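Predict the holo structure. Ligand: 6-O-phosphono-beta-D-fructofuranose.
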Amino acid sequence: MRIGILTSGGDCPGLNAVIRGAVLKGTEINGQEFVGFRDGWRGVVAGDIMPLERSDVRGIAKQGGTILGTSRTNPFEGNGGPERIQEMLDANGIDAIMAIGGEGTLAAAKRLTDAGLKIVGVPKTVDNDLDATDYTFGFDTAVEIATEAMDRLRTTGDSHSRCMVAEVMGRHVGWIALHSGMAAGAHAILIPEQKTSMEQVAEWVKSAADRGRAPLVVVAEGFTPDHADDPHSERGLDAFGRPRLGGIGERLAPIIEEMTGIETRATTLGHIQRGGVPTAYDRVLATRLGMAASDIVQSASWGQMVALRGTDIVTVGFEEALGRLKTVPQRRYREAAMLFG
Ligand code: F6P
């Protein structure tokens, strides 16, 4: 069996470990052959492939990014679609696709599988927001990076007696904010799932300052401020015409300063959270997922993806991964909030 691997959507630490796990298990145990598609679905539609042998994956588990490149190309747009892709697979002698990606990638993979293509999936999102898997690789690394950044923000905040606002990734959910905020001892964590008034935020900030602490506020990029005076509450579009995501930290800082009288600075961590070497936890998880993905190709489990349940790698249908966001439950937020202020 000859398998084409693609990585699609935003990159995240651990992608290379998945590729290595799949290629090593596949070539050594399952008797499979591999090629890589360059830049996600773009490479599939264009037939842009690269060799992926055992020697090509040597030592890559610790490398950030993806050796295959990635893009947000939709395989149904332009010249794409199931027939074009099947033709390209046939022309290159490729029997099956292993798609490593998030919700968009898996949704496309499901449509293509429904049309008869042989595809298996590996879930990927740094935001950890896929309901079908307990954790996604890349999340632990992002939390580690964000926590380290906040530890640094604390020391400069302490020196100047300032409130520091750290904006982290999390388009729809607040998992990175929750975990890094708890780890760094934040005095307030603001996430999209939890409506929080600015009065409440100001109270947490003042209470931390009253106890002689430099307040630390962590905000997920998808948080919407519930404040009438926020002049930018309409997010609108960014300079490229895409829905605006980041910038919430910068918007909150002056409001917090005005409401508390405490000088406030904001820092947006942005793509730093997706760069660099994966943690050991992410390398192990990603490697196990890649190995399991080779196995589900071997058992011809088309339309299935691998997932983590507890400490076990299991198999679930694409449909289970789609349309259901894994949000931060109230009880987890309340638990963290007990330590605020
Ligand atoms: O979905 C992962 C994510 O990192 C989000 O947290 C963030 O909003 C988005 O991707 C950024 O996307 P891009 O890399 O395309 O700017």
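Residues 10, 125-127, 169-171, 221, 245, 274 surround 6-O-phosphono-beta-D-fructofuranose (CB under 6 Å). The radius of gyration is 22 Å.
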